TrEMBL record:
PANTHER family, alphabetized: OSJNBA0070M12.3 PROTEIN, RECEPTOR-LIKE KINASE TMK4
Protein name: non-specific serine/threonine protein kinase
Residues annotated for ATP binding in this entry: K600
Source species of the chain: Actinidia rufa
EC number(s) stated in the UniProt entry for this protein: 2.7.11.1
């Protein structure tokens, strides 16, 4: 019995012994690996670490092993060690902690992959030169990774495989040559508390997954190029205690951080933050230290409690208390995300002092907001409705979403609302009939996005021009208004048309397909004008290929087919472009005998709109009636299908603008003072003539250097009469549409739309300032206080010294010239007086300028410069000759 029992037990113990032996053998083989790795490590370090002697590494100083003889920890911190770590370090399979910080270790960092026990890597403050690949893979237990202050590392990026380390609590990699973006892997680190990546070259934005980590201590400051984008994610990082984002390129507003109740230190300085400092920031309970300087923050200056260390610097432009228009404008800017372009310009507490995109009337009320073509995203703020004097709101060509706020219908003065080419959705509110609303280029307009009321179209589109009106206007109203509009337009067109026909009395007219085509011309006029008032209509089917076409030349006894203009301009080739005039491109043309002409081709988009048509007709109407040596001569016009062409005399020396502002690029020599005065005197005479015609006086409305053309003798002619308005009996007319060019607009005109001849005098005064200073009327590249020429120059006027300093550098005047300059400067101030009544008339201007020119050519006063009507300016002889052979027109 005993034997029976003992035998199996002996067998068992034998088995156990064998098992134990083999297990020891196996273990010692593994431990031998560790021993070998440690021996290699010891050999590669210099000087040899003290206490690292003997063959059993488990007995070395700073080395810890588990009971099986595996190395679990190595601590050689701050031992002044040099040398390179062997890659085999990666084979220490039970390693939990590696502490080699504060030495002089160099070479590549070992791979550190698949060490599933490794909890802590501390290798900061060394001279490592590279990170291996792969690196930081499969470290399933990692809690702390610290490799800061290894500035010799080759640039590397944080590998997204770090996401394997879901137990990570601290990641320190300051000053360690990181570049690229911060990977969006922070959802994998619910326990992460410390993230320090300062002094690297990280770029891109804060990853959205920051919100899913528990980060408390966030250091991303001092990136070489700078992290960028908005920092909205901070508002959902409620555990934050210390945030250092300084010296980056973060932009947009400071988010609401009211959830971050533990935050004590916030450093946002030296970024591009804009917008208001949220009030919630000032009431954070733990906040002790906040630095905001060197940003472009705006609005009320933040009021932090006593005891908080605050630095605001002086680049932020706070107001205290803020003007109500400023408050409103900031809210409007906020809806676009406080774009930097506005933050840069919108400083101070008065939006009428040269704020970008804002124009005011003489009472200091904002009347124009021009936010067109900025590429901004965001929404249209309902606060715009608080700017009660607003006439013009341009939001076209941005990336705006959301709907048009119904509050805008309260703007009683509103005339133009242009939201074309955005991504606006929703119903268009009902505006009163005087408001031109352009909603074209918004695919979702009229669709109620939230309620999914897809197909019903609130905005009705008029062929091509995309003008809309609200759906809720009943069809009756629409119908009635269309009828009224059509009747009105037909009548007014007929009046204009008749005037032309009558004046020409068939004499200068060349028509093919006569009546039929004139019907068509009439119709296209209707459509454009109707498009403007924004009612539903159908475009009459236009086939410009129809053989019927009208070609009209006015002003000379000749007529030429439109084909000729194509020919002489090389089929309107780009090489022939002279410039971009109002509503059209101007081409140079050369007649067969070499005579040069300028042909303005109205933009095809404008020829179908009343805007374009009006300019076209106005220009013809004015120029066929007025002739003056200093007004550019119109030699004819031409209508063919949608083509509208104007033919002018060619002015070979280009525009005054080119000679003043672009002479370097164009390789011209700068204009001498004498030439400048001669030019402005020419202009003054031309405009004086316009203003003082006995029967009808005309107002140019768009005087500026680019509309002043120069001949080979550098004498000037005024051009571009597209905006000219009739001023019967010296009375003013009130414009429904503000036209002209910013920088030259007289304040009362911008404010009220009231046009008098004094509007031209103002603009002329601005041109005088431009010839004196060589600066443009508006120059965004200059500091705010200098960018609006009129405001800046008028401030200098009191002081001859400052005028001397403001001169165009190319002038370099002698004493006599400087005298002359001062007189012109004084005249410029007079012409730009705020009150129109205080401005001189052009006759006075001519009187002041004439002696300045005569100074140089005293005996030789050019008689033609007086109010002569040059009735002999018609198309050149050569053209007539050429034309006579064409036999197209009975004379
Ligand atoms: C790490 O482990 C994974 C799977 O366990 C394996 O596919 C990979 O090759 C290993 N990587 C290294 C560098 O050992
Ligand atoms: C980067 O690390 C090096 C080495 O530790 C140190 O000398 C240097 O001051 C650090 N630079 C910064 C900006 O912290
Ligand atoms: C930062 O990284 C970019 C590439 O992302 C590189 O062009 C630039 O030279 C780096 N700057 C510095 C200071 O390292
Ligand atoms: C505030 O921040 C500055 C710079 O970041 C630092 O020098 C200072 O010690 C901080 N003070 C407190 C109270 O946190
Ligand atoms: C706009 O006006 C309303 C009422 O007049 C006022 O309550 C609101 O605060 C104003 N908004 C702004 C941004 O000024
Ligand atoms: C609108 O945004 C898209 C993509 O963000 C961009 O490609 C496009 O240029 C933007 N449009 C304008 C007018 O800025
Ligand atoms: C326009 O906005 C809608 C949301 O309102 C968006 O789904 C769509 O992608 C946007 N379209 C463009 C072209 O940006
Ligand atoms: C409306 O806006 C579009 C796009 O900017 C433009 O093409 C069209 O001419 C505008 N309509 C009018 C009448 O101004």
């Amino acid at each position: 019995m005993e034997e029976d029992e003992s035998r199996p037990s002996k067998r068992l113990s034998l088995l156990l012994t064998i098992a134990a032996l083999s297990s020891i053998l196996r273990l010692s083989a593994a431990a031998t690996t560790d021993d070998d790795v440690m021996a290699k490590l010891a050999k590669s370090l210099w000087p040899a670490p003290s206490g690292w002697s003997g063959t059993n590494p488990c007995e070395w100083t700073g080395v810890t092993c588990d009971s099986s003889g595996h190395v679990t920890a190595i601590n050689l911190a701050a031992k002044s060690l040099s040398g390179e770590l062997p890659p085999e370090l990666n084979q220490l399979s039970r390693l939990k902690s590696l502490s080699l910080q504060h030495n002089r270790l160099s070479g590549a960092i070992p791979p550190l992959t698949n060490l599933t026990s490794l909890q802590q890597i501390s290798i900061e403050s060394n001279h490592f030169s590279a990170v291996p690949s792969p690196f930081l893979v499969g470290l399933a237990s990692l809690q702390t990774l610290s490799l800061s202050d290894n500035p010799n590392l080759l640039p590397w990026t944080l590998p997204s495989t770090l996401a394997d380390s879901t137990t990570l609590t601290s990641l320190y990699a300051d000053n360690s040559s990181l570049f690229g973006s911060i990977p969006d892997i922070f959802g994998s680190f619910p326990n992460l508390q410390n993230l320090r990546l300062s002094y690297n070259n990280l770029t891109g934005s804060l990853p959205a997954s920051f919100a899913k980590s528990g980060i408390q201590n966030l250091w991303l400051n001092n990136q070489a190029q700078g992290l960028s984008g908005r920092v909205d994610v901070l508002s959902s990082m409620s555990q934050l205690t210390q945030v250092w984002l300084h010296k980056n390129q973060f932009s947009g507003p400071i988010p609401d951080m009211s959830a971050c109740t533990s935050l004590f230190d916030l450093s946002l300085r030296n970024n591009e933050f804009t917008g208001l400092v949220p009030n919630s920031l000032t009431t954070l309970p733990k906040l002790a230290n906040v630095s905001l300087e060197n940003n472009k923050l705006q609005g009320p200056s933040p009021n932090f409690p006593k005891g908080v260390l605050v630095s605001l610097g002086n680049t932020n432009t706070f107001c205290n208390p803020c003007d109500s228009q400023v408050t409103t404008l900031l809210e409007i800017s906020g809806a676009f995300g406080y774009p930097m372009a506005l933050a840069d310009s919108w400083s101070g507490n008065d939006p009428c002092k040269g704020w970008k995109s804002v124009s005011c009337d003489s009472n200091g009320a904002v009347i124009v907001l021009n936010f067109g073509k900025q590429g901004w995203a965001g929404t249209i703020s309902p606060a715009i409705a608080n700017l009660s004097a607003l006439t013009t709101l341009l939001l076209n060509e941005n990336n705006l979403t959301g709907s048009i706020p119904p509050s805008l219908t309260k703007l009683a003065q509103l005339k133009i609302l242009d939201v074309s080419n955005n991504n606006i959705s929703g119903k268009v509110p009902v505006f009163s009939s005087g408001v031109m609303v352009n909603t074209s280029g918004n695919p979702l307009i009229g669709k109620d996005v939230e309620s999914g009321e897809g197909s019903s179209s609130g905005g009705m589109t008029v062929g091509g021009s995309g003008l809309t009106t609200s759906k809720s206007i009943s069809r009756w109203v629409i119908g009635a208004t269309i009828v009224a509009a059509v009747v009105f337009l037909v009548v007014s067109w007929l009046v204009i048309y008749k005037r032309f026909v009558k004046r020409r009395s068939g004499k200068y007219m060349c028509m093919k397909g006569s009546r039929k085509r004139s019907e068509q011309l009439k119709k296209s006029g209707d459509v454009g004008a109707k498009g403007y008032s924004g009612y539903e209509s159908e475009l009459p089917s236009q086939s410009s290929a129809e053989n019927s076409s009208i070609q009209v030349y006015d002003g000379g006894n000749v007529a030429i087919p439109v084909q000729v203009l194509r020919e002489v301009t090389n089929n309107f080739s780009e090489g022939n472009i002279l410039g971009q005039g109002g509503f059209g491109v101007v081409y140079k043309g050369q007649l067969p005998d070499g005579t040069q002409i300028a042909v303005k081709r109205m933009e095809s988009t404008t020829t179908t709109s009343s805007k374009g048509l009006n300019e076209f007709q106005a220009e013809i109407a004015v120029l066929s009636r007025v002739r003056h040596r200093h007004l550019v001569a119109l030699n004819g016009f031409c209508v063919d299908g949608n083509e509208r062409l104007l033919v002018y005399e060619y002015m070979p020396q280009g525009t005054l603008g080119q000679h003043l502002f672009k002479y370097r690029e164009l390789g011209l020599s700068p204009l001498a003072w004498k030439q400048r005065v001669t030019i402005v005197l020419d202009v003054a005479r031309g405009v004086e003539y316009l203003h003082s015609l006995a029967q009808q006086s005309f107002i140019h409305r768009d005087l500026k250097p680019s509309n002043i053309l120069l001949g080979d003798d550098m004498r000037a002619k005024v051009s571009d009469f597209g905006l000219v308005r009739n001023a019967p009996d010296g009375k003013y007319s009130v414009e429904t549409r503000l036209a002209g060019t910013f920088g030259y607009l007289a304040p009362e005109y911008a404010a009220t739309g009231k046009v008098t001849t004094k509007v031209d005098v103002f603009a002329f005064g601005v041109v005088l300032m431009e010839i004196i200073t060589g600066r443009k009327a508006l120059d965004d590249t200059l500091p705010d206080e200098e960018s609006h020429l009129v405001s800046w120059f008028r401030r200098l006027l009191n002081n001859r010294n400052s005028i001397g300093k403001s001169l165009d550098l190319s002038l370099d005047p002698d004493e006599e010239t400087f005298e002359s300059i001062c007189k012109v400067a004084e005249l410029a101030g007079h012409c730009t007086a705020r009150e129109p009544l205080q401005r001189p008339d052009m006759g006075h201007v001519v009187t002041v300028l004439s002696p300045l020119v005569d100074q140089w050519k005293p005996a030789n006063r050019d008689e033609e410069d007086s109010f002569d009507m040059d009735r002999h300016m018609s198309l050149p002889q050569a053209l007539q000759k050429w034309q006579s052979s064409e036999d197209t027109r009975p004379q």
